[in-house]
Design brief:
This protein is mainly alpha-helical and 144 residues long. The protein is 87% helix and 0% strand.
Length: 144
C-alpha cells in the first residue's frame, strides 16, 4: 500500500505543474490577445474584425513555428511547451470571437463581409501556419 503512494504523489505533482504552466501561459495569452487586438482596432478601425484576424494569424504562426522548434531544435521542457502551445496560443487565438463576429455580420446583412472574414481567417491562418513551419525548418534543417 505504501509503495503506491509515492508514484501517485508524483503523478499528482506533475499534473499540478502542467496545469499551472498551462494556466500561466493562458493568462499571458488572454492578456496579450486583449492588448494586441485592441491596438490593431485602434490602428485599423472597427469596420472589420481586424483585431481578431490578426491574433488568429499571429497565433497560427507562433504555434506552427514554436512546436517543431521545441521538439526538434531546442531542448524545451514539456511544461514550457504546454504553456506556450496549449496555454498561450490557446488563449491568444480565438475561434469563438471569430464565430460571433461572423454571425453578427450575417445578422446585420453584411454577408459579403462575413464571407471575407471566413476566407481571410482560413487562408491567412493556414498561410501563417505554413510559414511558421518553414521558419522552423530553417532552424531544424530538412532532416528534422
Amino acid at each position: 500500500m505504501y509503495g503506491l503512494a509515492k508514484p501517485l504523489v508524483r503523478v499528482y505533482r506533475d499534473l499540478m505543474t502542467d496545469l499551472f504552466c498551462i494556466g500561466a501561459g493562458g493568462f499571458l495569452g488572454a492578456i496579450s490577445r486583449y492588448l494586441v487586438s485592441s491596438w490593431i482596432y485602434r490602428l485599423a478601425g472597427s469596420s472589420f474584425p481586424y483585431g481578431t484576424l490578426f491574433v488568429n494569424v499571429a497565433g497560427s504562426f507562433i504555434l506552427c513555428a514554436f512546436l517543431p522548434l521545441s521538439l526538434h531544435a531546442f531542448n524545451v521542457a514539456p511544461e514550457l511547451r504546454a504553456a506556450v502551445t496549449v496555454g498561450f496560443c490557446g488563449a491568444f487565438t480565438t475561434f469563438s470571437t471569430f464565430s460571433f463576429e461572423t454571425i453578427s455580420m450575417l445578422q446585420e446583412g453584411s454577408a459579403f463581409s462575413a464571407l471575407l472574414n471566413v476566407g481571410y481567417n482560413i487562408i491567412l491562418c493556414l498561410a501563417a501556419g505554413w510559414l511558421g513551419f518553414v521558419v522552423s525548418r530553417l532552424f531544424i534543417g530538412s532532416g528534422g
